[in-house]
Write a structure and sequence with these properties.
heterodimer, A: mainly beta, 5-stranded antiparallel sheet, 11 strands, globular, B: about 110 residues, mainly beta, 7-stranded mixed sheet
């Protein structure tokens, strides 16, 4: 059973467009929600993170929207660039476990 | 600063063979963990450790053993490799236990079991 559900599995966006990746969870014990970015052949790296007492967090072109009542959160990438092409993972933390979603492969075309 | 170092980068094993995937970090992080990454499955937690001498199971622990004798090292052992263990394995570490700190990942070990 996937504790963190992520969609879509893949996403194709034109340069300058908005990329949106969605995640949902069931476990209300999750208390920290990071997003990781992974380039081919590399390990994942932290992109941005949010706590459940905050509804939105923005860092440059990247924004997390968090809906605690719906147990959903999403990553928005504004003005998407070809360099953003990567796999994105949402995650959720409880106690000492960091649980990941299944990943979204984003391709941004010029 | 090396961060999290995994060795080897690639490995091919025959079914039934054993091997140890090495993971070392030089950031004095208390928390270390192992994940496997499979297409369509994301990253799944195998085992984790909150400090030297303490380990616990993650989501998919069967077929894997770990130990944590020092803060720096967290090896993952496959006692009898199976084709189902073909995957890319990532080690991660982070500062603090039970805290919202960044997890740093190694470059991964691509394991093929034939």
């Amino acid at each position: 059973q996937q504790q963190v559900k992520q969609s879509p599995q893949s996403l194709i966006v034109q340069k300058g467009g908005i990329s949106i990746i969605n995640c949902a969870y069931e476990n209300t014990a999750f208390d920290y929600f990071p997003w990781y970015q992974q380039f081919p052949g590399k390990g994942p790296a932290l992109l941005i993170a949010i706590r459940p007492d905050v509804s939105e967090k923005k860092e440059g072109r990247f924004t997390i929207s968090f809906n605690k009542s719906a147990k959903q959160f999403s990553l928005h990438i504004m003005d998407s660039q070809p360099g953003d092409s990567a796999t994105y993972f949402c995650a959720a933390r409880t106690t000492d476990k960091l649980i990941f979603g299944t990943g979204t492969r984003l391709q941004v075309f010029p | 600063n090396a961060g999290v170092t995994q060795t080897p980068k690639f490995q091919v094993l025959k079914t039934g063979q054993s091997m140890t995937l090495q993971c070392a970090q030089d950031m004095n992080h208390e928390y270390m963990s192992w994940y496997r990454q499979d297409p369509g499955m994301g990253l799944r937690l195998i085992h984790y450790s909150v400090g030297a001498g303490i380990t616990d199971q993650g989501e998919v622990p069967n077929g894997y053993n770990v130990s944590r004798s020092t803060t720096e090292d967290f090896p993952l052992r496959l006692l009898s490799a199976a084709p189902s263990q073909t995957s890319v394995y990532f080690c991660a570490s982070k500062r603090g236990v039970g805290k919202n700190t960044e997890a740093f990942f190694g470059q991964g070990t691509r394991l093929t079991v034939v």
